[in-house]
Write a structure and sequence with these properties.
By secondary structure, this protein is mainly alpha-helical. It contains 10 helices and 2 strands; from the N terminus they run H-H-H-E-E-H-H-H-H-H-H-H.
């Protein structure tokens, strides 16, 4: 799979995941590329596992048994390990995003741009490779991946006083329509922009819309 093919295949899922996880799509794709060798790893091909996530006691999904090289007792050895199997790319990305969000060491990365997110994750010790952050940033820049990230709209005092927030008619209508139709996946880009902006402004209307979205998905804003 070429880098262009890999990006094209993962782009819809990365954007959809970013809309709810706040992990930039640019970072997600760059890390997936680095960890899976642009989708050529056996785990990526057989298990849709882009980030090399092993199965744990709380994992209830399918698993794949594969050998792994471990450094034990002063020497390298091969052992069989169980790895998580995902039904699709989105499930893999959402699971990885939850791991990042639930780990306090990565908290400072959230809210940053794709490149800064990558640097923060690396600084927090995600990988032992001292050049890990630099490698991610290079992938993001080389392939212009930050163009996939939803930009937070700039708000004016008058607009927030009048309507709580202003996104442009298409975005607001798109969100209402999307909610009314049962939120088909993936989340449309204009809808993702509205949700992101509502989170930023903290507007009352935005809060209500987000609550409606979460209720339809059977979630809560505490998760």
């Amino acid at each position: 799979m070429t880098p262009a093919d890999f990006i094209s295949a993962l782009k819809p899922s990365a954007i959809a995941s970013a809309a709810t996880s706040r992990v930039p799509a640019s970072f997600c794709i760059a890390q997936a590329a680095l960890e899976s060798g642009w989708g050529e790893s056996q785990l990526a091909r057989q298990a849709k596992n882009l980030f090399g996530v092993k199965s744990t006691s709380d994992w209830t999904g399918e698993v794949l048994a594969m050998p792994t090289r471990e450094f034990l007792n002063g020497s390298w050895t091969y052992q069989t390990a169980l790895w998580r199997v995902y039904p699709d790319w989105l499930a893999c990305m959402d699971d990885h995003a939850r791991f990042l969000a639930q780990n306090p060491r990565y908290r400072a990365a959230f809210g940053l741009s794709g490149q800064e997110f990558a640097r923060a994750i690396a600084k927090a010790g995600y990988a032992t490779d001292p050049a890990y952050g630099t490698k991610l940033v290079q992938i993001i820049r080389t392939h212009d991946l930050e163009s996939l990230d939803v930009k937070e709209p700039q708000m004016t005092n008058s607009s927030t006083k009048t309507a709580g927030f202003t996104f442009g008619g298409a975005g607001l209508v798109g969100l209402v329509t999307w909610l009314a139709n049962g939120h088909p996946a993936p989340i449309p880009p204009d809808v993702a922009a509205v949700i992101a902006a509502a989170v930023v402004t903290g507007a009352h209307l935005g809060h209500n819309l987000i609550q409606s979205y979460l209720a339809r998905k059977g979630l809560s804003d505490k998760e």
